[in-house]
From TrEMBL:
<dbReference type="InterPro" id="IPR036873">
    <property type="entry name" value="Rhodanese-like_dom_sf"/>
</dbReference>
<feature type="region of interest" description="Disordered">
    <location>
        <begin position="127"/>
        <end position="170"/>
    </location>
</feature>
<feature type="domain" description="Rhodanese">
    <location>
        <begin position="31"/>
        <end position="125"/>
    </location>
</feature>
<dbReference type="InterPro" id="IPR001763">
    <property type="entry name" value="Rhodanese-like_dom"/>
</dbReference>
<dbReference type="GO" id="GO:0004792">
    <property type="term" value="F:thiosulfate-cyanide sulfurtransferase activity"/>
</dbReference>
<dbReference type="InterPro" id="IPR044684">
    <property type="entry name" value="STR17/STR18/HARC1-like"/>
</dbReference>
<protein>
    <submittedName>
        <fullName>Putative thiosulfate sulfurtransferase</fullName>
        <ecNumber>2.8.1.1</ecNumber>
    </submittedName>
</protein>
<dbReference type="Pfam" id="PF00581">
    <property type="entry name" value="Rhodanese"/>
</dbReference>
<keyword id="KW-0808">Transferase</keyword>
Protein backbone atom coordinates (compact mmCIF):
# COMPACT_ATOMS: atom_id res chain seq x y z
CA UNK A 1 0.00 0.00 0.00
CA UNK A 2 1.22 3.46 -0.74
CA UNK A 3 1.26 6.43 1.52
CA UNK A 4 -0.97 9.47 1.30
CA UNK A 5 -0.34 11.18 -2.00
CA UNK A 6 2.22 8.62 -3.26
CA UNK A 7 0.30 8.22 -6.53
CA UNK A 8 0.74 11.91 -7.26
CA UNK A 9 -2.95 12.58 -6.67
CA UNK A 10 -3.90 14.53 -3.61
CA UNK A 11 -6.98 13.52 -1.68
CA UNK A 12 -9.90 15.87 -2.26
CA UNK A 13 -11.79 16.55 0.95
CA UNK A 14 -15.26 18.04 0.74
CA UNK A 15 -17.61 19.22 3.47
CA UNK A 16 -20.79 17.36 4.34
CA UNK A 17 -23.01 19.73 2.36
CA UNK A 18 -21.02 19.04 -0.80
CA UNK A 19 -21.11 15.33 0.04
CA UNK A 20 -24.89 15.43 0.47
CA UNK A 21 -25.27 17.18 -2.90
CA UNK A 22 -23.03 14.64 -4.67
CA UNK A 23 -24.87 11.69 -3.08
CA UNK A 24 -28.19 13.22 -4.12
CA UNK A 25 -26.87 13.58 -7.69
CA UNK A 26 -26.11 9.85 -7.89
CA UNK A 27 -22.69 9.35 -6.32
CA UNK A 28 -22.29 6.20 -4.26
CA UNK A 29 -21.38 6.44 -0.59
CA UNK A 30 -18.71 4.18 0.85
CA UNK A 31 -18.77 4.00 4.65
CA UNK A 32 -15.39 2.71 5.83
CA UNK A 33 -16.36 2.48 9.51
CA UNK A 34 -16.53 -0.87 11.25
CA UNK A 35 -19.64 -3.01 10.81
CA UNK A 36 -20.51 -2.31 14.46
CA UNK A 37 -20.35 1.48 13.92
CA UNK A 38 -22.31 1.18 10.69
CA UNK A 39 -25.10 -0.81 12.34
CA UNK A 40 -25.69 2.02 14.84
CA UNK A 41 -26.62 4.33 11.96
CA UNK A 42 -25.42 5.43 8.56
CA UNK A 43 -25.79 8.09 5.86
CA UNK A 44 -29.05 7.73 3.96
CA UNK A 45 -27.90 7.15 0.37
CA UNK A 46 -29.31 5.29 -2.62
CA UNK A 47 -26.03 3.41 -3.23
CA UNK A 48 -24.16 2.63 -0.02
CA UNK A 49 -21.30 0.26 0.72
CA UNK A 50 -19.96 -0.64 4.17
CA UNK A 51 -16.38 -1.75 3.61
CA UNK A 52 -14.36 -1.23 6.79
CA UNK A 53 -10.90 0.24 6.34
CA UNK A 54 -9.89 -0.91 9.82
CA UNK A 55 -11.10 -3.39 12.42
CA UNK A 56 -11.12 -3.08 16.20
CA UNK A 57 -9.28 -5.93 17.90
CA UNK A 58 -8.15 -6.55 21.49
CA UNK A 59 -4.66 -5.47 20.36
CA UNK A 60 -5.96 -2.18 18.93
CA UNK A 61 -7.15 -1.03 15.55
CA UNK A 62 -5.81 -2.96 12.55
CA UNK A 63 -6.02 -2.25 8.86
CA UNK A 64 -8.37 -4.49 6.88
CA UNK A 65 -5.92 -6.57 4.80
CA UNK A 66 -8.61 -7.23 2.18
CA UNK A 67 -9.87 -3.64 1.88
CA UNK A 68 -8.77 -3.06 -1.74
CA UNK A 69 -9.98 -6.49 -2.88
CA UNK A 70 -13.38 -5.95 -1.22
CA UNK A 71 -13.76 -2.52 -2.81
CA UNK A 72 -12.83 -3.97 -6.20
CA UNK A 73 -15.57 -6.58 -5.84
CA UNK A 74 -18.18 -3.89 -5.12
CA UNK A 75 -17.10 -0.86 -7.20
CA UNK A 76 -15.33 -0.08 -10.44
CA UNK A 77 -12.41 2.33 -10.70
CA UNK A 78 -14.66 4.64 -12.73
CA UNK A 79 -17.47 4.87 -10.13
CA UNK A 80 -18.12 8.25 -8.54
CA UNK A 81 -17.97 7.74 -4.78
CA UNK A 82 -18.00 9.83 -1.61
CA UNK A 83 -16.00 8.04 1.09
CA UNK A 84 -16.75 8.66 4.75
CA UNK A 85 -16.06 7.34 8.23
CA UNK A 86 -16.81 8.55 11.75
CA UNK A 87 -14.72 11.75 11.64
CA UNK A 88 -13.01 11.91 8.25
CA UNK A 89 -9.61 10.40 9.11
CA UNK A 90 -9.99 6.71 8.15
CA UNK A 91 -11.77 7.77 4.96
CA UNK A 92 -8.86 10.07 4.11
CA UNK A 93 -6.47 7.11 4.21
CA UNK A 94 -8.95 4.88 2.39
CA UNK A 95 -9.26 7.39 -0.47
CA UNK A 96 -5.48 7.69 -0.71
CA UNK A 97 -5.07 3.91 -0.88
CA UNK A 98 -7.81 3.65 -3.52
CA UNK A 99 -6.29 6.44 -5.62
CA UNK A 100 -2.93 4.67 -5.43
CA UNK A 101 -4.46 1.68 -7.25
CA UNK A 102 -6.31 3.72 -9.88
CA UNK A 103 -9.68 4.86 -8.51
CA UNK A 104 -10.33 8.27 -10.06
CA UNK A 105 -13.59 9.82 -8.90
CA UNK A 106 -13.38 9.83 -5.11
CA UNK A 107 -14.04 12.49 -2.50
CA UNK A 108 -13.30 12.26 1.22
CA UNK A 109 -16.18 13.52 3.38
CA UNK A 110 -14.50 15.82 5.87
CA UNK A 111 -15.91 15.56 9.38
CA UNK A 112 -17.45 12.17 8.60
CA UNK A 113 -20.66 10.78 10.05
CA UNK A 114 -20.34 13.05 13.10
CA UNK A 115 -20.45 16.20 10.95
CA UNK A 116 -23.29 14.70 8.86
CA UNK A 117 -25.43 14.10 11.95
CA UNK A 118 -24.56 17.52 13.42
CA UNK A 119 -26.17 19.05 10.31
CA UNK A 120 -29.24 16.83 10.88
CA UNK A 121 -28.85 15.31 7.42
CA UNK A 122 -30.79 12.09 6.73
CA UNK A 123 -29.53 8.91 8.39
CA UNK A 124 -30.78 5.36 8.66
CA UNK A 125 -30.92 3.96 12.20
CA UNK A 126 -31.35 0.29 13.16
CA UNK A 127 -35.09 0.72 13.63
CA UNK A 128 -35.35 2.04 10.05
CA UNK A 129 -33.53 -0.89 8.42
CA UNK A 130 -36.64 -3.03 7.92
CA UNK A 131 -38.25 -0.18 6.00
CA UNK A 132 -35.28 0.70 3.78
CA UNK A 133 -32.82 -1.92 2.61
CA UNK A 134 -29.85 -0.34 0.78
CA UNK A 135 -27.17 -2.36 -0.99
CA UNK A 136 -24.80 -3.14 1.87
CA UNK A 137 -21.53 -5.03 1.53
CA UNK A 138 -20.82 -6.87 4.79
CA UNK A 139 -17.41 -8.36 5.32
CA UNK A 140 -15.84 -11.10 7.36
CA UNK A 141 -13.57 -10.13 10.24
CA UNK A 142 -9.84 -10.85 10.07
CA UNK A 143 -10.09 -13.52 12.78
CA UNK A 144 -12.24 -15.55 10.34
CA UNK A 145 -9.10 -16.18 8.31
CA UNK A 146 -6.42 -17.65 10.56
CA UNK A 147 -3.70 -17.44 7.91
CA UNK A 148 -3.89 -13.66 7.65
CA UNK A 149 -2.34 -11.59 10.39
CA UNK A 150 -3.51 -8.00 10.06
CA UNK A 151 -0.85 -5.40 10.56
CA UNK A 152 -1.07 -2.91 13.37
CA UNK A 153 -1.01 0.63 12.03
CA UNK A 154 -0.21 3.75 13.89
CA UNK A 155 -2.76 6.42 12.93
CA UNK A 156 -1.29 9.67 11.68
CA UNK A 157 -2.46 13.04 12.81
CA UNK A 158 -4.84 14.73 10.32
CA UNK A 159 -2.42 17.67 9.97
CA UNK A 160 0.28 15.24 8.72
CA UNK A 161 -1.87 14.18 5.76
CA UNK A 162 -1.60 16.06 2.48
CA UNK A 163 -4.98 17.43 1.41
CA UNK A 164 -6.28 19.87 -1.13
CA UNK A 165 -9.55 21.70 -1.51
CA UNK A 166 -11.75 20.72 -4.47
CA UNK A 167 -11.30 22.76 -7.61
CA UNK A 168 -14.11 25.00 -8.77
CA UNK A 169 -17.09 23.14 -10.22
CA UNK A 170 -16.75 22.60 -13.98
Amino acid sequence: MGSIGSSGDEVVTIDVQEAKDLIKSGYGYMDVRTVEEFKRGYVDAEKIYNIPYMFNTPEGRVKNPDFLKEVASACSKEDHIVVGCQSGVRSLYAVADLQNVGYKHLSNMGGGYLAWTEKHFPVVKPEDVDQKKPEIVELKKPEDDEEKKPELVEPKKPEDVEQKKPEAEL
